[in-house]
Amino acid sequence: MLNVTTERFGNVLAVHVEGRIDSANFGRFLDAMKSGIEESDRAVIVNMERLVYIGSEGLRAHLMTARFLQQRDARLVFCCVADHIRGVFELTGMDKVGTFFATKNDAFASLNLQEQASRRL
């Protein structure tokens, strides 16, 4: 099961991921990520608070998104990542595709959007 929802905060796209990202739903996840990104976006914040599993295809989707954003001079930011998910990123070296923050507020603050940080992601 995978549930992906998006929310816009000015020129930042917030993506909420719930469930599992695996080979069965990789394409749907990648489409949801890319279809929400606008040309003017400075960053995409991926909230993984409810992500329980990520497979190699999920990591690949994040790498593809990071490259897509890099071409637009935008950032990929992760927040609320469980230790076991973060471990997968670190083990594979994929922790370098984006910046990790413990909380939603920290993720927003890193983008110098202090006024946005208090809003619920």
Which outline best applies?
globular
Low-pLDDT residue spans? 114-118
pLDDT averaged over residues: 91
Total helical elements: 5
Element-by-element helix/strand order: EEHEHEHEHH
Instruction: Give the end-to-end Cα distance, rounded to a whole number of Å.
Output: 21 Å
| Neighbour order of strands in the largest sheet | 1-2-3-4-5
Radius of gyration: 13 Å
The count of DSSP E runs of length 2 or more, i.e. the number of strands, is 5
CATH evolutionary superfamily: STAS domain
CATH topology: Transcription Regulator spoIIAA
CATH architectural label: 2-Layer Sandwich
Helix content: 25-40%
Structural class: alpha/beta
Number of domain units? 1
Q: Major sheet: size, sense and barrel closure?
A: 5 strands, mixed
Q: In percent terms, what proportion of residues is strand?
A: 25-35%
Provide a brief overview of the structure.
The protein has 5 helices and 5 strands. It is an alpha/beta fold and 121 residues long.
Q: How would you explain this protein's 3D organization?
A:
By secondary structure, the protein is α/β, with parallel strands linked by helices. The chain has a single domain, classed as STAS domain (Transcription Regulator spoIIAA, 2-Layer Sandwich), CATH 3.30.750.24. 39% of the residues lie in helices and 31% in strands. A five-stranded mixed β-sheet has the order 1-2-3-4-5. The radius of gyration is 13 Å and the shape is globular.
